[in-house]
From TrEMBL:
Family note: Belongs to the UDP-glycosyltransferase family.
PANTHER family according to UniProt: STEROL 3-BETA-GLUCOSYLTRANSFERASE, STEROL 3-BETA-GLUCOSYLTRANSFERASE UGT80A2
SUPFAM superfamilies named in the record: UDP-Glycosyltransferase/glycogen phosphorylase (SSF53756)
InterPro entries (UniProt xref): Glycosyltransferase_28, UDP_glucos_trans, UDP_glycos_trans_CS
Name of this chain's protein: Glycosyltransferase
Family matches, as PROSITE patterns: UDPGT (PS00375)
Annotated organism of origin: Agreia bicolorata
Keywords for this protein: Glycosyltransferase, Transferase
Signal sequence coordinates: none
Pfam families registered for this protein in UniProt: UDPGT
Parts forming coiled coils: none
Length: 431
């Protein structure tokens, strides 16, 4: 059989999707990945065939920098980074303002390109990123069955009275103004309505007989796959979800890295892994505070600085492993703590490794994810803009000595490793 995977041109999205597809590859099936040129080398590294498909203006082969983006996307990214410095409400408000341009990019033309790829590949099964709204629009208009993978906290698919982009929860460290939250909700509702009108207009062009929707953000595929541990999700909300499968995680195999292997074999103090992912690593001011908090502690640190300005981090201990990019999956297996922004890959990979987390959420569903980690006893969360060096150090010390929390994290990791997400995905599509 032939499996088609449709992904935005972002490494952070393609990597988990490609990992899921290895379940088909290893069974001898043909896998084709439709994505943009920035991630084509990742497709090749998995041994898949690549079909060119642009789903948006931007791209990210691993570390994103505004100056490397096309006109329009560069300013949008700078605006987003600036908003994260202001706080929870301001960041979510900015993201809402950009939503009708970055999620439904040239909807009719892009949807037509998706259907052209479908016609050329003639797949037996299709897996698509939930955030690839234009691709899902095309598949829905054409009546093509597909599996829809939510790469993020499950609130990325709103249910009941939820509004896309409005936080369902946040950690205790955040105290957003109630009036500001109310204005944010009204803004998200207005964006939802505009976005839905755009979706329905394009749907009408693609298939005049199609039934319009009342909320395009609530649309989902025939098979709903949640790349998230069910153990971290509120059971009451789980009961309201449409038919679904929690995958747990999509943890990939990483090639050997001699420098990393040599550092790991050196032994010594426990390892703390620090990364803010491909986007939020730009917040070198927060990374600097984290580094200052960790310096006096008896730990070795693996620090992925991404696009951060190395000069802002100051002098770092020689015992630390510091690079722009580090093999996260490999290092988490040897770590006792992860300091993270709370992105989906970081959370699910740390959970699978059985590693407690200190989460510093900046945007989108990271707030809900951080709250879940804290409230369910797998870590702590702090506000990145206001957490002081002393507060960060105290949180790290607390997590390093929290025996019950470490044991709970190890148990979760064992449960997730017992049945990998790729096998859960294959089972869900085969049943």
């Amino acid at each position: 059989m032939t499996l088609l995977v449709i992904s935005p041109d972002y490494a952070s999205h393609l990597l988990p999707l490609a990992t899921l597809a290895t379940a088909w590859r290893d069974r001898g099936d043909d896998v084709v990945v439709a994505s943009g040129p920035a991630t084509s080398s990742i497709v090749s590294s998995f041994g898949f065939r690549w079909a060119e498909l642009r789903l948006g203006r931007g791209s990210n082969p691993g570390t994103i920098r505004a100056e490397e983006q096309p006109a329009g996307e560069d300013d949008s990214l700078r605006g987003f980074f600036d908003a994260t410095r202001q706080g929870l409400v301001e960041t979510l408000a900015y993201q809402a303002s950009q939503r009708t341009t970055d999620l439904l990019w040239r909807p009719v033309d892009t949807a037509s390109a998706v259907l052209k790829v479908i016609g050329e590949v003639r797949p037996d099964a299709v897996i698509v990123d939930h955030l690839a709204f234009t691709a899902r629009l095309a598949l829905q208009a054409a009546g093509i069955q597909h599996a829809d993978v939510v790469l993020g906290h499950p609130t990325a698919l709103p249910i009941a009275e939820e509004v896309y982009g409005y936080p369902t929860s946040w950690p205790r460290a955040f105290e957003p103004d109630r009036d500001a939250l109310e204005r944010l909700r009204h803004s998200c509702e207005a964006v939802r309505d505009r976005f839905t009108a755009q979706w329905n207009d394009a749907l009408r062009v693609l298939n005049p007989a199609a039934i319009p929707t009342s909320d395009a953000f609530a649309e989902h595929g025939d098979t709903l796959l949640l790349n998230y541990p069910g153990q971290l999700h509120d059971p009451e909300r789980t009961a309201l979800l449409p038919k679904h499968a929690f995958l747990g995680s999509a943890v990939r195999d990483e090639p050997t890295d001699p420098e990393v292997d040599a550092w790991l074999s050196g032994g010594g103090a426990p390892i703390v892994y620090v990364s803010f992912g491909s986007f939020l690593s730009v917040r070198s001011d927060v990374l600097s505070r984290v580094a200052h908090a960790l310096r006096p502690l008896d730990v070795r640190v693996a620090l992925a600085i991404g696009s951060a300005d190395r000069r802002e981090l100051g002098e770092l201990p020689d015992t630390w492993l510091v690079r722009e990019f580090l093999p996260q999956v490999t290092l988490l297996k040897h770590s006792v703590l992860a300091v993270t922004h709370g992105g989906n890959n970081s959370v699910t990979e740390a959970a699978t490794a059985g590693v407690p987390m200190l989460v510093l959420p900046f945007s989108t569903d990271q707030f809900a994810g951080a709250e879940a980690i804290e409230s369910r006893g797998y870590g702590l969360a702090l506000a990145p803009n206001t957490a002081s060096v002393d507060e960060l150090r105290t949180a790290v010390e607390s997590l390093l000595t929290a025996t019950e929390l470490r044991d709970r994290s190890r148990l979760l990791g064992a449960e997730l490793r017992a049945l990998p997400g790729r096998d859960r995905a294959h089972e869900a599509l085969s049943s």
